Amino acid sequence: MVIRAVIFDIGGVVVGSPVAAITDAEKRWGLPSHWINAAITAMGDDGPFQRFERSEISQDDFYRDFGARLSDVDGGNKAYRVYCKRARIECPPLPTQVRIDGKELWGMMMAPALEPDELVVNAINRLRASRRYKVAALTNNFAPLGTAEEGEETTGAGNDAMRGMFDEYIESAVEGLRKPDPAFFRLALDRVGVAPSEAVFLDDIGHNLAAARALGMHTIRVQHGKSHEAIAELERLLEMDLTSPVVAGAKL
């Protein structure tokens, strides 16, 4: 087995995950655990969250539609019952009314994206310094397109510092594709010039990893708060130290 490329998700891998923020939001609005995630997932590819990551709707339209769709208590409860059945857990009492502000929730979800995981960043730096691998990012992100309020700070497509960490930075907001679409993975493989079996992909979301494996890629799941386990698995796969600090001029 020869690995020639390592491909990283960004949110939940290189920077913090919105998962903890969603948990806080569910407590804030008195919702059962995983209710918001289940509702977002059930919207499918035509949901406002998914469309925003493909740059198909404006930021302001996203805020409005995101809040409206999540405030549809019947749709959200239906999605949550499906989730409970799939997870084989007892369905708790469900809400009879939901009022979610899409802009407020999105702000909560994006806050962790400002916090890099230094262990993962160091591993990326060591991979780049070794010159043995192509190192790429494959991220579902967004680029605000609409009439955001004047002076409003937004977190969207990867900034220059983040892009500079990688040989290739492949983002849904630019390409109009998003994970787990197989075409998005194929695009990444083409950009780094490797076959699926020559790439390892790190992500925190199961269905993204399943799509990558179906193409023949090696995969590593990054569990929330357990990036050290994922990096240790990557070290074993590549037979390479990824945790020692990078020393300028040192041969890796």
Automatic annotation (TrEMBL):
Question: What Pfam families does the entry give?
Answer: Hydrolase (PF00702)
Q: Which Gene3D superfamilies match?
A: HAD superfamily/HAD-like, Putative phosphatase, domain 2
One GO term in the molecular function aspect is: phosphatase activity
Q: Give the InterPro entries listed for this entry.
A: ACAD10-like, HAD-like_sf, HAD-SF_hydro_IA, HAD_sf, PGP-like_dom2
Query: Under what name is this protein listed?
Result: Epoxide hydrolase
